[in-house]
TrEMBL record:
Its EC number is 4.2.1.3. PROSITE patterns: ACONITASE_1, ACONITASE_2. Residues 395-443 are annotated as: Disordered. Keywords: 4Fe-4S, Iron, Iron-sulfur, Lyase, Metal-binding, RNA-binding, Tricarboxylic acid cycle. Belongs to the aconitase/IPM isomerase family. This is Aconitate hydratase. Catalyzes the isomerization of citrate to isocitrate via cis-aconitate. Residues 720-850 form the Aconitase A/isopropylmalate dehydratase small subunit swivel domain. Residues 64-592 form the Aconitase/3-isopropylmalate dehydratase large subunit alpha/beta/alpha domain. Pathway: Carbohydrate metabolism; tricarboxylic acid cycle; isocitrate from oxaloacetate: step 2/2. It catalyses: citrate = D-threo-isocitrate. GO terms for biological process: propionate metabolic process, methylcitrate cycle; tricarboxylic acid cycle. Pfam families: Aconitase, Aconitase_C.
């Protein structure tokens, strides 16, 4: 290693080992920076090369103006990349395709190879087909391999073909929990140099690692691929929000209650594009698991990261999870030497300040369709009733077409996805006192009979990385299950229950505590180690229940311990989804309905009379004692000893060999990507957009789930037709998420969410639009219309409201948009990752000026659009605005290409094309 402009290269002695480090105190001004910016500063010091990173970049960060609007661009080089399989498979497809493109352009294909560690955890593919039985786990895993054999063979090839690429096989755990329990280094030791572990991931909840002091966030798959190939991530030095924690959590509250409170506060404050950093005396009162829970939900409140500095609690967790003594000693010495150690008495300089007294946190839920819509548990019943009755009133009053099956608006929050209500909550007469009632008799195959009604809990799932990584809430849930069994309670027969922990360690400590039999007895049997219900892999409801729900338009609910509850995500049969702690998930499974005051009403009739929640809720002291006695370091060391090895099913997969992948023309899972077809060694000049038509006109809070759903493929849709034409039976359709290695499926699935509301149509939900290539512009599938536009050479645009592209980091939301022929999106605002992904695919993100919208400008979506001024990019700069003409209307839109690096990507038609051309030049 060589010294840089600041002479910061130094030695750090830890025990009998010596490490090279780049000292932060060699740079004037570094001491006042927040933790997160100190990590970025070290990154710049270490990667200074006079080109991508210069001394001026380093000075700009050291002299950071906390109050200024971000304007200084820097290049961040993450230490590693982490992936999950839904986003990871298309990454490997792209890398395999890039190898062929390099070969075709006369280069060496093996130069397409990760330059930094890249690790993938297969956790998104298991579906809860089987539940409530001792063999549910084994049967689900077997079905997973049957469905995904092609994908898994492809990933095993990738593991052998690419250096620095490792795969954690199915049935091991959820990527973010495996990351914090095993893969995260906190401080890296590579080639004798010690430096902070930084990691970007192809899943938005990569921020869970922020809980152990690792700076990183979710990026799109294409940006991750570029990072793997050594391309730094271009970013503006961000504003940093300091979030002070004081006090201690009251008894009876959980990490879930805390994170839902923080999510509500930060969404209201506005932190999109900002870092959030926690500090203060209250941080010391938070176990590491609670910090990880907060970091995990950073995407839900919109920040880039939500980080905690390193302290004794971090070291305690590293020790518990089996990191070796040498690594732990390095983390401590490095953090203290570099000023990265938490001092609760010091308040760093921040751009904005917020504060929460932990003692004010109360038991909570969030729903029915946004994680930021927190509901006090005491108000859950009346809020649910108000939401249902308000919806019914709007339908009966003609505000919505009864056939549209429109999802329920969140109380006290703006309508979404095609509703034009803006920021004003809908006003209706109900105060939540009326009881929505429509009992429907149901008899299951085994003869069990009951009445199903509005509000009945159809899905109760302990799922997701957010909570299943936290032993306090998991032990709490198991103790609640024990108390329920002791009182003679079990789940209601209409509830589909599931337990999907984030790692095998969870089941180990539940077994050691003797609590597994109680979970099994009330139906929470192990169904898999994966994301399951949180990403829509809920699996089907029992046929009799599904039929009753759909035939009678019942508003049944899901209660899950996840981080996402967007409409249409959890199950196509469930309209209202609530996020809750694992103990509350079990409580609602016992009650069987949301139409209950769960704090005061009896949950169920037990062997000795009515049972209330207070009779079941475990004391915090009991939970803490079992956590202390049941979790040991050996559980982690044993679980992760051969983490990349896998079981016999994984090891026995037949895999192809060679540096280039042999594509199977008949595969419906893995196909060569089209992004480099016809690509030349030099890019074509950027062109203005003329004669464009609107493919979709959308409202606020359109998520990446709306744009590119991950769940089931509906019969009769373009994606279903493609699969059927290729000999795939309906039972083998699998999910959109599992087929992301096949662009033919994914293009057809773009904008195909069953809850999407395109304002070009009246009262219609799903992947439809008006096809202006046809006389009278009839309703058509979005894919079919896009093909007709392509045949005519007509470019396309999408118009949207606020928070366009919120939710998952899903790069297919941008890939599908680009492959449909969309050249530009015009929105009121964007979520960070999706805006970046659009640029990475060569789609121009434009933004209405403040105070303007499609509605205020009178845009109906029926116009023909011309966008001029884009060609200014050919001159090396970035135009602030472009001119948009839509028939007789004209306005200017803000160009949301925010950095020179992003401009380079756009000029090249995308980030991968830019990286590939750079590799060839070298």
């Amino acid at each position: 290693m060589s010294a840089n402009s600041f002479g910061s290269l130094d030695k750090l002695q830890v025990g009998d080992r010596s490490y090279d480090i780049y000292r932060l105190d060699a740079v004037e001004g570094s001491a006042r920076l927040p933790y997160s910016l100190k990590v970025l500063l070290e990154n710049l010091l270490r990667t200074e090369d006079g080109a991508n990173v210069t001394a001026d970049h380093i000075r700009a960060l050291a002299q950071w103006d906390a109050k200024a609007k971000p304007s200084k661009e820097i290049q961040f080089t993450p230490a590693r990349v982490i992936m999950q399989d839904f986003t990871g498979v298309p990454c490997v497809v792209d890398l395999a395709t890039m190898r062929e493109a390099v070969r075709d352009l006369g280069g060496d294909p093996t130069r397409i190879n990760p330059l930094a560690p890249a690790e993938m955890v297969i956790d998104h593919s298991v579906i809860v087909d089987y539940f409530g039985s001792p063999d549910a786990f084994e049967r689900n895993v077997q079905r997973e391999y049957e469905r995904n054999k092609e994908r898994y063979q492809f990933l095993r090839w990738g593991q052998t073909a690419f250096d620095e690429f490792k795969v954690v096989p199915p049935g091991t755990g959820i990527v973010h929990q495996v990351n914090i329990e095993h893969l995260a280094r906190v401080v890296f030791d590579r080639n004798g140099v010690a430096y902070p572990d930084t990691c970007v991931g192809t899943d938005s909840h990569t921020t869970m690692e922020n809980g152990i002091g690792v700076l990183g966030w979710g990026v799109g798959g294409i940006e991750a691929e570029a990072a793997m190939l050594g391309q730094p991530i271009s970013m503006l030095i961000p504003r940093v929000v300091g979030f002070k924690l004081t006090g201690e959590m009251p008894a009876g509250t959980t990490a879930t209650d805390l994170v839902l409170t923080i999510t509500e506060m930060l969404r209201e404050h506005g932190v999109v594009g900002k870092f959030v950093e926690f500090y203060g005396e209250g941080v010391q009162a938070l176990p590491l698991a609670n910090r990880a829970t907060i970091g995990n939900m950073s995407p839900e409140f919109g920040s880039t990261c939500a980080i905690f500095p390193i302290d004794d609690e971090t070291l305690k967790y590293l020790r518990l999870t089996g990191r070796d003594d040498e690594q732990i000693a390095l983390v401590e010495a490095y953090a203290k030497t570099q000023g990265l150690w938490l001092d609760p008495s010091v308040e760093p300089e921040f751009s904005e300040y917020m504060e929460l007294d932990l003692a004010t946190v109360v038991p909570s839920l969030a729903g029915p369709k946004r994680p930021q819509d927190r509901i006090s548990l005491a108000e859950a019943k009346q809020t649910w009733r108000r939401d249902v009755l308000n919806y019914a009133e709007s339908v009966q009053g003609g505000a919505a077409d009864e056939a549209s099956n429109e999802s329920f608006p969140a109380s006290d929050s703006p309508a979404i996805s095609g509703d034009t209500a803006g920021d004003k909550p809908r006003q209706h007469g109900s105060n939540g006192s009326e009881r929505p009632h429509n009992p429907v008799p149901v008899t299951l195959e085994d003869g069990t009979s009951f009445e199903l009604d509005h509000g009945h809990v159809a899905v109760a799932a302990i799922t997701s990385c957010t909570n299943t990584s936290n032993p306090y809430v998991m032990i709490g849930a198991a103790l609640l299950a024990k108390n329920a069994v002791d009182k003679g309670l079990t789940r209601k027969p209409w509830v589909k229950t599931s337990l999907a922990p984030g790692s095998q360690v969870v089941t180990d400590y539940l077994e050691r505590a003797g609590l597994t039999p109680y979970l099994d007895k009330i139906g929470f049997n192990l169904v898999g180690y994966g994301c399951t219900t949180c990403i829509g892999n809920t699996g089907p409801l029992q046929p009799e229940i599904s039929k009753a729900v759909n035939d009678n338009d019942l508003a049944v609910t899901a209660v899950l311990s996840g981080n996402r509850n967007f409409e249409g995500r959890i199950s196509p049969d469930v309209k209202m989804n609530y996020l809750a702690s694992p103990p509350l998930v079990i409580a609602y499974a016992l009650a069987g309905t949301m139409d209950i005051d769960i704090l005061n009403d009896p949950i169920a009739e037990g062997a000795d009379g009515p049972v209330r929640l207070a009779d079941l809720w475990p004391a915090p002291e009991e939970v803490a004692a079992i956590v202390e006695s049941s979790i040991g370091q050996e559980m982690f060391t044993e679980s992760y000893a051969d983490v990349f090895k896998g079981d016999d099913r994984w090891r026995n997969l037949d895999i192809p060999t060679g540096d280039l992948f042999e594509w199977d023309a008949s595969s419906t899972y893995v196909r060569k990507a089209p992004y480099f077809d016809g690509m030349g060694a030099e890019p074509e000049p950027v062109a203005d957009i003329h004669g464009a038509r609107v493919l979709a006109k959308l409202g606020d809070s359109v998520t990446t789930d709306h744009i590119s759903p991950a769940g089931s493929i509906k019969a009769g849709t373009p994606a279903a037709r493609y699969l059927e034409d290729n000999g795939v039976a309906v039972k083998d359709f699998n999910s959109y998420g599992s087929r992301r290695g096949n662009h033919e499926v994914m293009i057809r699935g773009t904008f195909a969410n069953i809850r999407l509301r395109n304002q070009l149509l009246d009262g219609v939900e799903g992947g439809y639009t008006r096809d202006f290539t046809q006389q009278d512009a009839p309703q058509a599938f979005i894919y079919d219309a896009a093909q007709n536009y392509a045949a005519q050479g007509t470019p396309l645009v999408v118009i949207a409201g606020k928070e366009y592209g919120s939710g998952s980091s899903r790069d297919w939301a941008a890939k599908g948009t680009a492959l449909l022929g969309v050249r530009a999106v015009i929105a009121q605002s964007y979520e960070r990752i999706h805006r970046s992904n659009l640029i990475g695919l060569g789609v121009l993100p434009l933004q209405f000026k403040d105070g303007e919208s499609a509605e205020s400008l009178g845009l109906t979506g029926t116009e023909t659009f011309d966008i001029t001024g884009v060609t200014a990019l050919n001159e090396g700069g970035i135009p602030e605005e472009v001119t948009v003409k839509a028939d007789g209307k004209e306005f200017t839109a803000v160009v949301r290409i925010d950095t020179p690096g992003e401009a380079d990507y756009y000029r090249n038609g995308g980030i991968l094309q830019y990286v590939l051309r750079n590799l060839l030049r070298k």
